[in-house]
Structure formats: structure tokens, C-alpha cells
Design goal:
9 helices; five-stranded parallel β-sheet
């Protein structure tokens, strides 16, 4: 991806503490500095934010994934947005590569919350004028906002890697959704790569636990690519890999945008038949994940940078995903 030419002096980029390496890569891609902001703690744990530069009348971007610790990172983001609003920034764009609480997008029991909507309300109340996020767990969360929401996709990054890995092997590759909810995503990738499509029929017993029931589609002797939006405890993806091997797949690899990798995830991946797990850096990997030889990280920094540049220049984002 080639970034647009020309430096724009009238917007500034800030970041919380959740994913500073990604924020620095975004700034490097845009050839702009990461602006000064102090995000620290008082002795009782309360978050203290000080914006170190003049933002009056300027467009601003705040890069912050609401990953682990989700509550702390969310509060950092909200307080930074409030600080920018009170400093008279013209536009406050919340760049949230990973949108935490996205799985709580509807009521699943009679007295359960819709936390994804609550987060949307908090961001608006804090003063965000636009939200940019990537590969939302539920695309309809965009409708929870009364401000512009730009939904980015990691498919240019993931597809580029897939094409390099499986060039000329499309007849021997099957794109597989690990559950019924991800079929649309898998079908879109399958169409781009011109592969066949498979589905793993999964029946969830309770949160973070799933039972693999059946494999739909021909995987015999093929390379199966499991595709999901996120890998949390890795239960779904590793059980799906076992099911595919049992059905005769020659080998199995996995691609996912968000590497949550909580609890026993890394151990499960290590012990599974998965040959490679390709993820992006929307969430910074913890040391155990970085040390796992099966896990490969691709950067979405240039994709985010180009989206931010186009948003500032009021250009279309749709051509990013052609």
C-alpha cells in the first residue's frame, strides 16, 4: 500500500498506553510525530491525562485499542477524548483498532446488558466526533453510534499474505469458517482467492467453550484455512483444526485479525495441529504469544495510516478494500 503524498500540518495524532508500538508505526507511515500526551496514574489508581500540545481548531486522532486491561484502556481513551474536547480540538477521531465489549452486542438473557451500545454512548458523551475501528465482531454495532463510524477491514493485509503463501494452489485450498456466524467473512475471502468454502458446525455449550460437531464441505487432502475475526481462548479454532484433520485435511492454518489470546490460548495453539496462526497487531501480543513459533504477526499500521489520511482529507475509504 502506498500512502498519499504531501504532509498535512493541521492534524495531530495521540495515543494511549494500550498499543504504543502500533501507534508509532502509524505515525511513521504518515511521516508525522506522535504528539505529546502524558497518560499516568495518581497514587490511588485514577488516570491522569495531560495533552502536551496545542490542538485548538485542529483535527485530532487518538489511537487506543480497548484490549486487556479493557476497562483501564477504555477509561484512558475516554479521558483523552474529554481532554481534547476541553482543549477545543475541532475533530476528535477515536481510532480503536480493537473494539472491546463488541461481543456483548445484544441481550442473550432476560436481564443482561448490551455493553457494546453502552461503550458507544460513553464515547459520544466524552466528545468523540468519529470512531474508526477494524473487523468488528458484529458489524451492526456501527448503528449504535449517532456519529460517523468508519469500519475498516484487515483483508488487504491478510489476503496479501494468503496470496503469497498459496499462490498457484487455489485448487488445493479450502477457506473454512469455524462457525456459522463467520460464513459471510469466509465466503468473501474465498471469492477473492477463488477457493472452495467449508464450514465447521459449532454448538456452544457456555461462554469460551464450544463443541465441534461436523465439517461441511470437501476438505479431503486440501490445505484448510480457518478464518475468524478474533482468537480469544483459542478453543474454537483449535477444535475446528482437529475436526478438519479428522475429516482428511492435509494441513490446517488459521488467520485472524484480533489476537486476544487469553487464558490457555497459546498452550492450545502450541499443542494443536495448526501449522501457522497469522494475526495482526491490533492488539499487542504478550511475551508467551510472541515466543510461540506458530504465531506470525502482520501489521495493519499502513492500512490505518492511509484511512486516517483519507478521513482528514475527506477522501473515500472504499477503494482501500477493492
Amino acid at each position: 500500500m502506498v500512502l498519499g503524498s504531501g504532509l498535512l500540518p493541521d492534524y495531530k495524532i495521540f495515543a494511549g498506553n494500550s498499543n504504543l508500538p502500533l501507534a508509532k508505526q502509524v505515525c511513521a507511515a504518515l511521516e508525522r510525530p506522535l504528539c505529546k500526551a502524558s497518560v499516568s496514574r495518581f497514587s490511588d489508581g485514577e488516570i491522569q491525562v495531560e495533552i502536551g500540545e496545542n490542538v485548538r481548531g485542529l483535527d485530532t486522532f487518538v489511537i487506543q485499542s480497548t484490549c486487556t486491561d479493557a476497562n483501564q484502556n477504555l477509561m484512558e481513551l475516554l479521558i483523552m477524548i474529554d481532554a481534547l474536547k476541553r482543549a477545543s480540538a475541532a475533530e476528535i477521531n477515536a481510532v480503536i483498532p480493537y473494539y472491546g465489549y463488541a461481543r456483548q452486542d445484544r441481550k442473550v438473557a432476560s436481564r443482561s446488558p448490551i455493553t457494546a451500545k453502552l461503550i458507544a454512548d460513553l464515547l459520544e458523551a466524552a466528545g468523540a466526533t468519529r470512531v474508526i475501528s477494524m473487523d468488528m465482531h458484529a458489524g451492526q454495532i456501527q448503528g449504535f453510534f449517532n456519529i460517523p463510524f468508519d469500519h475498516l477491514y484487515a483483508n488487504p493485509v491478510l489476503l496479501d499474505h494468503m496470496r503469497k503463501q498459496f499462490d498457484g494452489q487455489t485448487n488445493e485450498v479450502v477457506m473454512v469458517s469455524p462457525d456459522a456466524g463467520g460464513v459471510e467473512r469466509a465466503r468473501a475471502y474465498s471469492k477473492r482467492l477463488r477457493t472452495t468454502l467449508g464450514i465447521v458446525d459449532k454448538r456452544r455449550i457456555k461462554p469460551n467453550e464450544a463443541e465441534i460437531m461436523n465439517v461441511l464441505g470437501d476438505v479431503q487432502g486440501k490445505t484448510a484455512i480457518l478464518l475468524d475475526d478474533m482468537i480469544d481462548t483459542a478453543g474454537t479454532i483449535t477444535q475446528a483444526a482437529n475436526a478438519l484433520i479428522d475429516k482428511g485435511a492435509a494441513k490446517v492454518c488459521a488467520y485472524s485479525t484480533h489476537a486476544v489470546l487469553s487464558g490457555p490460548a497459546v498452550e492450545r495453539i502450541t499443542k494443536s495441529p495448526l501449522e501457522e496462526v497469522v494475526v495482526t497487531d491490533t492488539i499487542p501480543l504478550h511475551p508467551a504469544a510472541l515466543a510461540c513459533p506458530k504465531i506470525r504477526v502482520l501489521s495493519v499500521a499502513k492500512l490505518l495510516a492511509e484511512a486516517m489520511r483519507r478521513i482528514h482529507q475527506a477522501d473515500s475509504l472504499s477503494s482501500l478494500f477493492v
